[in-house]
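Lab notebook, bench 4. Still working through the backlog of constructs that have no structural model yet. Next entry is a single chain of 464 residues. Request: give me the structure tokens for it.
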Amino acid sequence: MLKKTLVLLLLVLAGNVQANRAIDNWTEFAQQTGKSGHKAWLAAISDPRAVKLAERWKELRGFDAYDAIAKYSVPEALKPGLVVNKENIQQHSWLKDYLPRDYIKSIAGDNGFVREITIVPTNTYYMNEGVLNATLAIQGKGLTPTTNEHSTLVNPDGSATLLNDETASAIPYLNPKNGLELNWSFIAHGVGTETLIFDPMISNSCDGNGSLDVQYTGLIWWQKFHGRQTIEPLGSVEDKDDLIEGGSLFVVSPNDVHGIAAVRQRAAVGNKSDDFKIFIPSMRRTRILSGNDAQDPMYYGLEITWDDWRAYWAKTDTKTFEYKLLGERLILASPETGYIYRSATMDESQCAWTNMEMELRPVWVLEITDKNGQYQYKKRTLYIDQEMYYAQFQEMSDQRGMPYRTWDDSRSWRPFDGDAQWDHITIHNEFNNRLNIITVTPDWDERGEKVTEEYFDVDQLRDL
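Model written out:
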């Protein structure tokens, strides 16, 4: 009996050690740097609520980031504290296997949009308890969805997975076996929360020479319509029976675009058009936009198209796109520390990062290919995090197969409850060298009361 008790105790202790590898590494790193942001981050991930939620997610997934990384042989130099810049990048030839091509080129250049990177310890990420509970529930009931002939994700009973309150919040495929399954788990992640507010979002549009062209200020709201478990209203939002989610935008400045208001609501059925409208003040009218319009820039000077909004908002369509799982790998990506501190330092030009922190992440590689040659991108390659089911980085090519755009972002992620919004986004056009740097101030307070139905009615939104 005593022997069994000792064995159980050792197993529990071993589990705690495994669950706290990120904490151990951040403890050492924060002591080395002495930076207040690093110390505050260590405190945040050490919160007992964060530790418990991380443990529950690891148990569900069967692994965490450290388990996934342990399968690989990593260069000895690739460790927290390493600084890479123009002066020493040639000494680290192994970087090509971990750092996106666009970033290597930028760091090695004279006036790149990223001048230097610093490696920080790998974190362990997870989503909120609502997503956890919903995923546990469908796993327990064996509710594995499939994709029907209309490119709609459906449950065994025929209901749309992302409309059904029982399944809408769940990650449908914890260990995706193909590209379509990985795509759906990424889609199910959504924006990492049930209600999102950017107040404000500042978008720097920079020309090809690294000078600020125009700076936009705007507001963004987002709402998940079904399966809501953590933010009021719970369950389903009224009058959204056929819609999965909605995003809305209001442009505040500069004056020539002030008052632009846009609302896009995603239809659950794959072959049904989204509810997509934009009010243009200079024309004093509201336009109804189609799927082709989603490939246009959101407004002048932005590299972001409506299909790039929220990192990826193209509609899943198996007739138009091929979804291929290329495999698994490790990459260097921006940490999601924005709730505590911003992980990148902006140049005074507002058109470059003088330093950007990066951590080692295990990802699946998803390649989405346009079958018909009519989409803005021939290929979109997404590096989807194996803990969060969210894209750590994206590379897009034009219809000639040439490098076109890259997307990188850093989330404002709360360790104590797993909820996430955004902190900063970097979109680079590799063809003309134009750049967008977007910084976000997320609003976390009373979101259930602040985001109401009028935010998803463009005729009411424009008058706010």
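Notes after review: The domain at 189-461 is CATH 2.50.20.10 (outer membrane lipoprotein receptor (LolB), chain A). The chain has ten helices and 18 strands. Flag for follow-up if needed.
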